[in-house]
Amino acid sequence: MDTRQLTATLQRLTRLWHEQPPAADGESLPAQVVENHRHNFLIWHEEDLTRRHDLPTERIRETKRTIDRHNQLRNDAIEAMDAALLPLLSPPAADAPVHSESPGMMLDRLSILVLREYHLHEETARTDAGADQRAAAVEKLGFVREQREWLTRCLEELLTATGGRRWFPFRACKLYSNPETNPQLYAIGSAAARPARRSTNSDSRTFLLHDAVAGTGGVPRSPGL
């Protein structure tokens, strides 16, 4: 995976999706990365709406529900990215350093940084904002670009470092979105709670976690080169 080309693709899609509705499909790893970015893009703009004080309460409530739905799908996409990467990378050395984040988690962070960079750049060019506000945006933009550069380098190293890195596949394990584990939902009874939403990646994820831990004495065996 060329992380710099991937970053450029996310930047291009961000610009495109501000001109036309975002869309993504397919099962290949790039498509999964794009799908994750699509949900982050939609969450970003729904979050903007929730800060408005002139909208009816019902509109804000529906916006929050929309954010919840996209956030669940975003987490599914992170799991799918890790599941797709796992068989593509060689197992790391037994004494390889342990990495706290999976590639999918890092790709999700990269997606959000690309969105933040785009919108900060917009802030630097606003004609209806004061000079101090634009100057603050310029400073933040430089910091975000540096963050993106470091993250891209770290992701590249995780995937290509000699001897590899051990990492554990991402799994959200959400509680609040499931009527069976959210006390506010199971307290009012199943009839009033929405059915639990099963992850679209549950089957592959179960195999993934089993395969990642099996034969390692409980220590995740994760890929690397």
Describe the structure.
The chain has 225 residues and is mainly α. The chain has one domain. Helices cover 60% and strands 0% of the residues. α1 crosses α2. The chain starts with a helix and ends in a 12-residue tail after the last helix.
Please mark out the parts with pLDDT under 50 across 5 or more consecutive residues, or reply none: 195-225
Strand content: under 5%
Sheet with most strands: none
Overall spatial form: globular
Element pattern in H and E: HHHHHHH
- Structural class based on helices, strands and sheet pairing: mainly alpha
Radius of gyration: 20 Å
Arithmetic mean of pLDDT: 83
Question: How many DSSP H or I helices?
Answer: 7
End-to-end C-alpha gap: 12 Å
Helix content: 55-70%
DSSP, total strands: 0
Number of domain units: 1
